[in-house]
């Protein structure tokens, strides 16, 4: 149809087409609100003008040290201002942000740096030992920049430059350019991968722009939020929030350590309006004690994702004046891409019913084009009956480009034209989806599927339970049966295995109740997820 | 760089790329909030599910009557529900919305229908006489559909179908598709053009999507707004607000006639949160009288554009509890594309200073990539001194594709890679732009440029003045001098020409004061703009 009257002589040109990029957000924030506070860290504050100029300087310094389009800049930093600046400076230089989980061991660091081909690595003295050990494994070492933090006393410098010295080599007037193509890569993030080597998820400018805005719509955010960084920026680029906060000309409150006292101090000092975190962070906050939590004197918006927040945690958060929005996503979809979008009439329901509705993952993000729960082979959507289990699949602009240097894994993930999440869910009659399990976490007992999440939710509703995880345990008769791993509250009274099993049998179908309960702290991944694969192994040896 | 590791095997596919289109907004609104009210008109209400299904049915009916990709569907309707549905149904059918100004005369209607090649025309019995006369001029007549309105008693049907009957021929389950390419045209709107034939501005799905969202960010809109349609939907597709309200799952309150009593009745009955209008609508509201305005018992957000609102009008609106946001744009940039983004510390200033700050056009819309005030020849930006005049130019994704079947005008408008607005402005030290005049409205007196807008603002500050317009008047000695046309308030006391001239001389440089003042109602275009070209002619004959 190129000869349609609506196409002829109506082509793209410099005046009417521009690649979408979140870099336009910081440029506008600095132009329109130059004096507004962009970054707070302990007692220091920086304006949008300063933050923008420092980012330009950083980009310029990278260019002067040979970084160019499609190069990789790795960063292993806590939530300090330099980590925020990285999210603008690296793409300004045309390069790709490769954020490393700060809890990785030397082998994992070395694998990622080698696989991504990082030209530069920013790191923090706290991680010097692990990073130095990783660097020893590399033939081709990146330029290493230490980001010194006056708030951290120990650790050592291992780099070629200190960050501020490196910035001093750059030009604050650096004339950065938008990417030539909005499909250009902006970030690389490795999945935590419980088996085998992690896969490198590549995202692009267009998707980062759209999901940054989609966060605003999904969370009903207003202009100038004060956002507390309880969510690691290394995790899916902080779910795109560095760019979201720039788009809203807001303030980022940095936080080196996610401890309860540090969180509530920051809330008190900065009139925080928004924060994000995995349910484990919510749990930490809900259990912080009155002395700390009393500073929450107005509603604060909390977004959670990573696992369904147990109803008991949601209820505790509501009592503390936190307004929790539940989202769901994966690294492959830029962080959150599904939201439990609230309905006003649900406010009238009993708290327990509200929490159950809120524990559902929900509906597609405003800028995700399609979300289905379907048979992974036929791609046939399951009926909206709240019962039939299928795989969650995504389609749209906030789905990754693919996995770096891994065309097989990319092709497999995109089979049939949908991104396959590996998560199993049902679709309720109102169209809201609810995760029942990771594909590999389903327990098949006597031919019946048991959702480990359902058993966990029952355990969480017991007042003595702080954390719970349920996995399959081999069983001669049934094939598999549920095994529970439980960490009790410090103030819980005495409770034994049989009492907890009986509690479950009283509150769910008997065949779903765990046959064994193991007490003790739960092992976690570096992103705070419970290491279920390790528990599965332990259950196999019981 | 196609062989970069970030490009290889990382192409677009059905899973990770989708054309941007505002059609995704209504599909999501109907899926997530099916029972919420989408449309109110007098005493009838329709949910998002109904509105979506009716739009699908309408699209299906269009297809069944031969409408296909890149066909034109014209519509000449007031702000009734069918006009809202048109904004979804027509692009669902792959076609282009061509909205006609309801005040056009038969010749202008005939010109536009012939130029656009409209296959279908929707119209209202109120305009039957003008439309019938226009149709007589056409060799190739469109299919005509009357949208009968129980709220309008007179007029006659001239169509082949009545709208509801036409919808009945369609299928509510119609499987519409997104455009293959987001650059595909979505709408056509003719500029009012004071001389020569009007030009047809062609916009696309990508831009409509982005400006619909940009409205949300620029206006700090929350979810579920109740939006009163005081702005004609035929005007730049209602500044993209039909799509904005769908994206926010809000409610559109339709309004056939923009009269003060109808506006305030609708506000009272529907807890309106937002409305838009030209300054002339603000003036109407500000002068409605206590009996009507007393229903405004909480702040209501008002967006205005089309001309700078005089400070006196802004102050009156503020007193009535209307929170006015001033924007600026043109049909060529999808409606508003510049916003006077507010700063909290301005709230502390005297009301008069606030109004003067707010009367400035401001800064680029969040999703407009570039806005400059520059020399139209060299494209050199003017200094940010608040004095040097240049032309306002735009660059980015919310700039039109170009003018329909008019490559010369398109090339001229995009000269140098910027869209040239024809509006003259200064840039203040804080980066906010302020329009000084249309290029042709500047008065050159003794070699000095006089901004007609500045003289008008002075006149508006006189309590007796309801409306004012200033144009050049030929003068043997000075070349040109300012001539004022003034409509006085009905309750204004006696005031004569000399008194008004003296008032101006007391409040601005003497050479800028008008030499003549002509009293009486001002002529307006069909979009409510003052017909300055007509006043210029009158001034030439004085």
First CA to last CA of chain A: what distance? 67 Å
Helix content, binned percent of chain A: 25-40%
Q: So how many helices of chain A?
A: 18
Over all CA atoms, what is the radius of gyration of chain A?
24 Å
Record field, number of beta strands of chain A? 26
Task: State the name of the first-level CATH class of the largest domain in chain A.
Answer: Alpha Beta
Query: Which strand order spans the largest sheet of chain A, edge to edge or round the barrel?
Result: 2-1-11-10-12-13-14-15-16
- The shape of chain A is globular
Q: Judging by the overall fold, what is the CATH architecture of the largest domain in chain A?
A: 3-Layer(aba) Sandwich
Q: Remind me, CATH topology of the largest domain in chain A?
A: Rossmann fold
Largest interface, by Cβ-Cβ below 8 angstroms: which chains and how many residues each? Answer: A-B, 68 and 67 residues
> What's the main sheet of chain A like?
9 strands, mixed
Poorly predicted regions of chain A: none
The structural domain count of chain A equals 3
* Strand percent estimate of chain A: 15-25%
Describe this structure in words.
- Two copies of one chain form a homodimer.
- Chain A is an alpha/beta fold and 542 residues long.
- The first copy, chain A, has three domains: 23-207, Rossmann fold (3-Layer(aba) Sandwich), CATH 3.40.50; 258-439, ANL, N-terminal domain (Rossmann fold), CATH 3.40.50; 442-541, ANL, C-terminal domain (GMP Synthetase, Chain A, domain 3, 2-Layer Sandwich).
- Chain A contains 18 helices and 26 strands.
- A nine-stranded mixed beta sheet of chain A has the order 2-1-11-10-12-13-14-15-16, with helices on both faces. In chain A, strands 7-6-5-3-4-8-9-19 form an eight-stranded mixed beta sheet, with helices on both faces.
- In chain A, helix 13 (311-319) links the parallel strand 13 (300-304) and strand 14.
- The mean pLDDT of chain A is 93.
- The interface between A and B is large, with 68 and 67 residues.
